[in-house]
Amino acid sequence: MSSHAEEELRAEQQYLVHAHACLRSSRAQLLELAERARARPGDEEAVAWLEWRAEQLRDENKSPLFFGRIDGPEPRPCYIGRRHVSDEQDEPVVIDWRTPMAARFYRASPGQPMEVTRRRRFGFAADGALTSFDDEPLTENSVSAGLSELVIAEIERTHVGPMRDIVATIQPDQDEIVRTELASTLIVQGGPGTGKTAVGLHRAAYLLFEHTKLRRSGVLVVGPNDLFVRYISRVLPALGESQVVHLSVDELVAAKRKPVPETAEVAALKGDARMAQVLAAALWAGVRLPTEDTVVRESSPYVRIHPETVRELSEDLVAQRVPVARARAHLIERITAHVRRELETRGHAPSDADMRRIARAKSVRELAASVWPTVNPAQVLVDLFSDADLLGRAAEGVLTAEEQRLLLWPSAPASVGRAKWSLADRFLLDELASLVEPPTRFGHVVIDEAQDLSPLQLRAIMRRCVDSATLLGDMAQRTTPWAAGSWRAVAEHLGVPSRVLQLTTSYRVPRDIVRVANSLLPEISPELPPTVSGRHVPGALEVQASEDTADSLVELLRAAEQHPDSVGVVLADDRFTAVRRRLAAAGITAGLPHEDEAEHKFSLVPASLAKGLEFDHVVVLEPELITAAGQDGLRLLYIALTRAISRLTILHTGELPAALAAAR
Ligand SMILES: Nc1ncnc2c1ncn2[C@@H]1O[C@H](COP(=O)(O)OP(=O)(O)OP(=O)(O)O)[C@@H](O)[C@H]1O
């Protein structure tokens, strides 16, 4: 390092010390203000807010206060960090990565420098000490040198434990998506490792920063399974965002008992959007208008309500299929208003207290409940699946006779409580429950692995969201029989306008591995463009033929034991138990990743659970057995191959699947 560079480094280190001092002083000021406010009675709200702000400014030294700097367009350099820091004069010392000024750090490029003359990225040691920087001069004539070394080092830093944030190294194509306005519902199609999950989570953090209303309504992140949700759930808290709820698809329709399995054919039918029509028809078939007069005896004098009046008062609620609980409440309000008008016409002047009593009156409540009887979604579904005539009426013109036959249970359960529900049934119950009382809604929803969701699952998620969502996925990684099948079909079920954006550069997967994975695309998703890789890692791909793959695996893992890299062995689902035992017999512990708080050095991952995960070194064990898993076999293999950050070893004993053999 030249003496000039050393001097610069020292100056940056001092700036970091200064930033820490400013942060501490701001926090001390806030705590002092909170102390003073506490002495004033009635200022509890201000105290809570000041304490919350002070908590946010706690200097825990978990991550560096800034990670980058831009020179220009401001007279002073701008330092970019995970949160804002200002000095005693309230001048910014570090600006939050989500501000418009910070966008230039991510977006400025040679050719389009956006008035930035230089981008600087900082390198830090594990203890938080600033140890290096990397400069990129930006002028209209400069040429892009590809990913900076610090970005590559960040991507290749050993991956053990849950996913971490990428705030220091977000790439321009990703930043565009992160900062798209809240009103847009986005569908992000991207190949493996293009950063979809990371982008979705950073978008949530960005939107929470930009829109205070989201802080009240919150953000929901939905992932495919518990394993995956645990893997990603620490990213947003690390970015200081706690108003986010993470749920797996199963948790969304919380069930106490484990769902019962069912055939792919039945599950796909139950996930079909037409089922929503059938359920609505079944539920609304229960709506009955009265045929006789009702006498409201709680008013003085009595008021008689004719069936025709009830029809007039509830007509629009029925026509618009207003959710049952709400419709009933509206009708009670309307009947009460009707009673008031009747009494006034007859020369009486009922007080507000009289009217409140009438709104609570038994006769009025019973009348509303006779139009919209109390519905138990489980009872509706049990009746529907146990009674061919009932199902026939609800599904008329919607489902074929054969489809109706598929839905019917061979025998009805002894009681509703004894009914056994599949995962798809749980979404039908959720659909029915929403016709009675819509669920609480979040300001924005991020849906990961959206390519795998059924139309009914998409509906369930979208009704939990106020107006916009971010869907992330890769059609080539689609592995569920109930999936909508294309982004166009997905868009149809969202209920809001949406647009599809593409990410095509993989930051995770090295070039040689991407090439092999791309060779499967013509068979699994010919409509998609091949992924390109931003990184070349010499020796990233190794293919080993072996007489006994388990023996070879033991040997390979023993050699890896001393190395800090995470290792994930992806294998056919039905090989999991046998291989785990074989490894245990050899004294090697391996289990599902993130299974418990103690992370295993070696993860053993059934191919059907590998989606979304990643490891420094991936071993794909016996690919020929993974592809044998039915029509999704090739997709599972595509997913397995692309979990690698630095190395992929394919251990096979039989013939390699044709596409792999050709691409070697
Ligand atoms: N800009 C970036 N800087 C550093 N790391 C990145 C960047 N973009 C992506 N990564 C890393 O690449 C890996 C893949 O990211 P992510 O899981 O978000 O991709 P994905 O598109 O969801 O992949 P998949 O489809 O395989 O699940 C992660 O480790 C992520 O941290």
Automatic annotation (TrEMBL):
Signal peptide: none
Molecular function (Gene Ontology), one example: helicase activity
Chain positions recorded as ATP binding sites: 190-197
Keyword Glycosyltransferase: no
Annotated ranges, domain UvrD-like helicase ATP-binding: 169-510
Entries under InterPro entries matching the protein: DNA_helicase_UvrD/REP (IPR000212), P-loop_NTPase (IPR027417), UvrD-like_ATP-bd (IPR014016), UvrD-like_helicase_C (IPR027785)
Gene3D superfamilies, per database record: P-loop containing nucleotide triphosphate hydrolases (3.40.50.300)
Pfam families for the chain: UvrD_C_2
Keyword annotations from UniProtKB, A to Z: ATP-binding, Helicase, Hydrolase, Nucleotide-binding
PANTHER family on file: DNA 3'-5' HELICASE, UVRD / RECB / PCRA DNA HELICASE FAMILY MEMBER
Protein name from the UniProt record: DNA helicase IV
